[in-house]
Specification:
alpha/beta, Rossmann fold, six-stranded mixed sheet, four-stranded antiparallel sheet, disordered N terminus, ATP hydrolysis activity, transmembrane helix, ATP-binding
């Protein structure tokens, strides 16, 4: 689906988004009521001041007939009312800020919780930059629109209603002049709001694409430069940036038309009030002071239309961004755990019965896979790229659910146990390392936060990471940059190995766990792994077949099927696919 297509929301979707926004505001109803009350006080005070000014003018008309004491009393009254209006405005800001930023906090918290429950298939199919853009940029834009709505919309509507009531109390015919021209302003505002909404929604979508692209390019800048892909990267960015410019210009154009269009209508209202009011004043129907009141009210009445029109435009943008956030929140969660799901009590016995799986409905990957792993066995999984090795690991950990068949651990289907207990039963060291921004100590203790310093150091020594850690500026207290950017890939992998060494769960998964480690260190690590795997069911994915000679069972996978099974010597003796793979690594034979 194109960005343009995704940017369009039906009126029903827009209304549904608005209802959900109001639902998010509901917990802060007390602040909403307080905001309405103080907005009414502020508007009433501001509308009362022109009446006082008009009365003061009438006390100063005529040569030598100025009633100075009455004027001074009115001045004091104006000061008191102005202070009350200012205090009400301050309270209004406090209430509106509390509502807006509380709702924004709730949205971000909900989005973060949602990410924890999303299936990996969603995260694999959506750029991380786009998800970040929804949680950060879109929520920020939503907050800005919501704040403007509470700050100016309430006050604007109350000002319009209050002004009409005050004018009606003074003179009905002049008030009718104002009322008759008002619909023109509403038509203009509605016309511009409908068109700006579509473009603001498109702007949010394309901005998410741009954030995803920038995130991708920054993370992979070394690869971009290594392959001389700078020009193509700039071209891709220019294309997205051009689309963002195009949709942003259209959004800004329609939103910027709001102010001059409504000002034009406002000038018509002011001129009409001035003309009709002057005729009444000349005829003696109203005093000069009352005419000044009407002219002041004409300004105060039309000014909110400018603000409300701008607010409506911003609210359209805010709703467009809120819709993107709600789209994330509405994504399907991972398959929920069974109602009677219990904690797994693993003994290391893993059975795969007639397992089938496919990432895409029309592309089978694993079909009819059967495997019986006895407790304490070391199972090596080998095969060409794309044969399903890592997919099998994902199924064992229940990152993905099987499409057919079953996987049992200790005789219990893994769909009938809690995910936390299942995943806590495995220790994983992957080829793709991940470290959080924090100290070395915190990263090693990621799976066991209450570990003592002695346990952490012992795990680091077992992983042969202690020596390089002590050479770091602050040893175990050295802060690692995001994803370990300030240490080497091999050092990151050693820390990930130490993380598992610390927990020592009953089952292990090693997916190319030593791919980034030098040969000398790898020999020592393999010895440590051998000790760690003793008595533990272990699944080992390896491309270097020399590292799995000691495995109890070697599974040779091809196109999602186990084509050969046995130990190293048995498979070599068969002279089949495994023998071909093994010999190719030592004889340079292509397979």
């Amino acid at each position: 689906m194109s960005a343009k297509a995704k940017s369009k929301l039906t009126p029903e979707q827009r209304n549904a988004t608005l209802r959900r926004v109001l639902h998010k505001i509901k917990p802060y109803s007390l602040f909403v009521v307080c905001s309405l009350v103080v907005a009414a006080v502020s508007v009433a005070a501001q509308l009362y001041i022109p009446i006082l000014c008009g009365n003061a003018i009438d006390f100063m008309l005529g040569k030598g007939s100025v009633n100075l004491s009455a004027v001074l009393n009115i001045v004091v009254e104006i000061l008191v009312v102005a202070v009350a209006a200012a205090f009400a405005q301050w309270l209004l800001s406090v209430c509106n800020n509390r509502i807006t930023f509380s709702v924004s906090r709730d949205l971000r918290n909900e989005a973060m919780r949602k990410i924890q429950t999303l299936p990996l298939s969603y995260l694999d199919s959506h750029p991380s930059g786009d998800i970040v853009s929804r949680m950060v940029a879109d929520v920020d834009t939503f907050a800005d629109g919501l704040l403007m709505g509470f700050t100016q919309l309430f006050s604007g509507v109350l000002t319009i209603l209050g002004t009409l009531l005050f004018m009606l109390s003074q003179n009905v015919p002049i008030t009718l002049v104002v009322v008759c021209v008002t619909p023109l302003s509403l038509v203009v505002a509605s016309f511009l709001a409908k068109r700006s909404y579509k473009y603001f929604q498109g702007q949010s979508t394309v901005r998410g694409e741009q954030t995803a692209l920038v995130n991708e390019m920054i993370e992979g800048q070394k690869v971009v430069q290594a392959f001389g892909h700078e020009a193509e990267s700039l071209e891709a960015f220019d294309e997205v940036n051009g689309r963002l410019q195009d949709v942003s210009l259209k959004a800004i154009f329609f939103s910027s038309m709001t102010n001059p269009a409504t000002r034009f209508v406002n000038n018509i209202v002011y001129a009409g009030v001035g003309l009709v009011g002057a005729i009444y004043a000349v005829a003696g129907g109203i005093t000069i002071g009352q005419l000044s009141i009407f002219l002041s009210y004409a300004n105060q009445y039309t000014k909110p239309f400018n603000e409300i029109s701008g607010v409506v435009t911003e609210l359209q943008n805010a709703l467009a961004c809120a819709a993107r956030v709600f789209e994330l929140l509405d994504a399907d969660d991972q398959i929920p755990e069974a109602e009677n799901a219990a904690a797994l009590q693993p003994d290391g016995h893993v059975v795969l019965h007639d397992v089938s799986f496919r990432y895409l409905p029309d592309r089978p990957l694993i079909e009819g896979l059967n495997l019986d792993v006895k407790p304490g066995q070391r199972i090596a999984i080998v095969g060409p790229t794309g044969c399903g090795k890592t997919t099998l690991i994902n199924l064992l950990m229940r990152f993905y659910d099987v499409n057919g068949g079953s996987i049992t651990v200790s005789g219990t289907d893994i769909r009938d146990v809690t995910r936390a207990s299942l995943r806590g039963s495995y220790g994983m060291v992957l080829q793709d390392t991940w470290l959080r921004a924090g100290t070395v100590r915190e990263n090693i203790a990621y799976g066991k936060p209450d570990a003592t310093d002695e346990e952490i150091i012992a795990a680091a020594k077992a992983a042969h990471a202690d020596s390089f850690i002590r050479r770091l500026p602050e040893g175990y207290n050295t802060v690692i940059a995001e994803d370990g950017g300030n240490i080497s890939q091999g050092q990151k992998q050693l820390l990930c190995i130490a993380r598992v060494m610390l927990c020592l769960p009953p089952m292990l998964i090693l997916d190319e766990a030593t791919s980034s480690i030098d040969t000398r260190t790898e020999v020592r690590i393999q010895a440590a792994f051998a000790r760690m795997m003793r008595g533990r069911t272990s699944f080992i994915v390896a491309h270097r077949l020399s590292t799995i000679r000691e495995a109890d069972v070697i599974l040779v996978m091809k196109d999602g099927h186990i084509v050969e099974q046995g130990n190293h010597d048995e498979l070599l003796a068969q002279g089949g696919f495994y023998a071909t793979l093994y010999n190719s690594q030592f004889e340079g034979v292509e397979t």
